[in-house]
Design brief:
The chain is mainly alpha-helical and 170 residues long. It contains seven helices and two strands; from the N terminus they run ααααααββα. Strand 1 and strand 2 form a beta hairpin.
Length: 170
């Protein structure tokens, strides 16, 4: 009986986007893994919105050349499916991801370390202890944005955020 309950809990947790984030970045993540994994999970959630709310989702989801992350983001925002504060955080994650992927000097550049919240205001998360403030910001931005999008999808769009076969990394 107990093993069935534990198995059920594990199955539920393994489909949770936030749990997937922690499982995929590991216990000692670096800036690149924090941002890239967060970005992939955000794109997975955006694809769920497109899949369930757009007329022709297959082309948008499968054609990453003509519909890259930024275009998908613009589509769902312009359709009124994303509030501005979530849109701004996702756009910020995309900008950071592109900086890390395409700019060798990005790690030396100063970045705006704010996060938009429901009220539309910006907050600046501060690390506790001696951790790297930049790494702390990247992790906080990724997790906060994933959770904002999840909550919005489930509450406002009535889109479940767990999948039967969760794999944004196909």
């Amino acid at each position: 009986m107990e093993s069935g309950i534990i198995s059920s809990i594990f199955d539920t947790l393994s489909k949770d986007v936030t749990i997937q984030y922690f499982l995929r970045v590991g216990t000692k993540p670096n800036d690149i893994s924090i941002v890239v994994v967060g970005h992939l999970l955000l794109e997975y959630l955006m694809n769920r919105i497109i899949e369930l709310k757009c007329k022709s989702p297959k082309k948008i989801i499968e054609d990453s050349r003509n519909y890259p992350f930024s275009v998908k983001l613009q589509i769902i925002h312009s359709m009124g499916l994303l509030p501005d504060y979530i849109f701004n955080n996702i756009a910020k994650m995309n900008k950071i991801r592109n900086g890390l992927a395409h700019d060798l000097d990005f790690h030396e550049r100063e970045i705006d370390r704010t996060i938009f919240v429901l009220s539309g205001k910006k907050v600046c998360p501060k690390p506790k202890g001696r951790g790297n403030p930049r790494t702390y910001y990247f992790k906080t931005l990724a997790l906060e944005t994933i959770n904002q999008l999840r909550s919005h999808m489930e509450t406002n769009l009535q889109i479940p955020t767990e999948a039967k076969e969760f794999s944004p990394f196909k």
